[in-house]
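## Example record

The block below lists the input lines for one assembly entry, exactly as stored, with component labels intact.
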Amino acid sequence: EAQVTQNPRYLITVTGKKLTVTCSQNMNHEYMSWYRQDPGLGLRQIYYSMNVEVTDKGDVPEGYKVSRKEKRNFPLILESPSPNQTSLYFCASSLLPGQGDTEAFFGQGTRLTVV
Amino acid sequence: QQQVKQSPQSLIVQKGGISIINCAYENTAFDYFPWYQQFPGKGPALLIAIRPDVSEKKEGRFTISFNKSAKQFSLHIMDSQPGDSATYFCAASNSGGSNYKLTFGKGTLLTVNP
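Predicted structure tokens for the full assembly:
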């Protein structure tokens, strides 16, 4: 089954404690991205990756890091989380334009609370 | 700068009615316009998409209308059902850009009353 898997689904942490949210896809997609979803603000892109070792900032990258060492994995790292990073996070993957249908497949989401 | 503006923010429709959600974009380089549907506790999923070479695309009860000159596109849900209650996001992307990106609207919470 084609899917994007995020872990954990729920996380409560304290300010300043480093955390990683994992994301893995089994569709051999080149393109992966992270979004945060906040009420009234929709889906805002944090970081994206167009291939292994190729990552770039999205619209709201401050306070986040990513890495793309393998094609299937794209972890999101919060080095020093703050309460304003409390949000619902989604990982997504897709083919790139020219490779085929660019439908984005989303994970189930990670609800993060920073206290 | 918000490149895709979506309205309304919320919408209540009676069962059997027509739901209409509108989006407007600014970047004339956009050439792919999908709509995503999100149920509570789930990630968004592609509902229907259109490219600017056509003015309308229909899939079952869902229709996208596209107006290239006005830089607007809309989602019409005919015979709306309670099971259609969800958040809907329009989006747009530029296939030819060096940095591919899907830009989303802020979403519309649709409630269909029985």
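The longest strand of chain A covers residues 42-51. Chain A has no helices and eleven strands.
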